[in-house]
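Example noted here:
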Amino acid sequence: MALLATQVRAEPTDLVARPLWLAPGEVEVDGTVEINLAHNAKARPLSLAPDVWVGVAPRWTIGLVHSMASVDRFAPGGSFCVRTDSLYCDSHYRGSGLDVRFAATDRIAPRARVLLRDVDPWKPAVTLGAQLRWQHGRYAITGDPYLQFGLANRDQGNRAQLWLPIQLALQPTCRWLVALDTGINGELAIFDEAFHIPIAATVRARATTEIDVGATLGFASLLGPLNTPKQRVLFVTVGWRR
């Protein structure tokens, strides 16, 4: 039985088959530097965003999140802004979130989040959705669809939103992963008129059995009615998992 339990977990270097959940006692930490690359606003804002997840019970994972990547968004200013600006992050702290996941199967993990994505004005929200994954050999398709509901200040931009992110990943060698991120998102009330289609490219490498590093170049709305190549961001991430 112990051998079977070990076999269902991916090898430490197997990035493409990494489980959607953490076993009890396991910890995953991501530290991300979010760098704005917009025209005439490079590195402003510049933000630091730590994310921490812990396996608290069989199939249950709880996390404290700060990064834009943790909510599938390709923009700077996720939380702790070293350099501020008036558009994305006008204070040194922008917000946090609580992420709860349950592994219904190896491929489906329903999740809920309680988010504070801005503090001025106060914009609390909840999200309901699930992580989904299909994986075969060195290939994987991962989705994270969710609905977001604003709890306050809905008239100031905290309205209901639909997010349908998807990632296509390939692991060409045992320690390297490359991925294409895309999908569609927007406010429900005006979704057909103002949806966004992001595009991002990710490279991630396993440096040791516990540490990996990665980078993502992302465009928040490269396609769609409000498309623009000017809104772009670079994420540089160091992850630790044990």
In short: The chain has a mean pLDDT of 92. The first strand starts at residue 27 and ends at 36. The chain has one domain: 2-236. The first helix runs from residue 2 to 7.
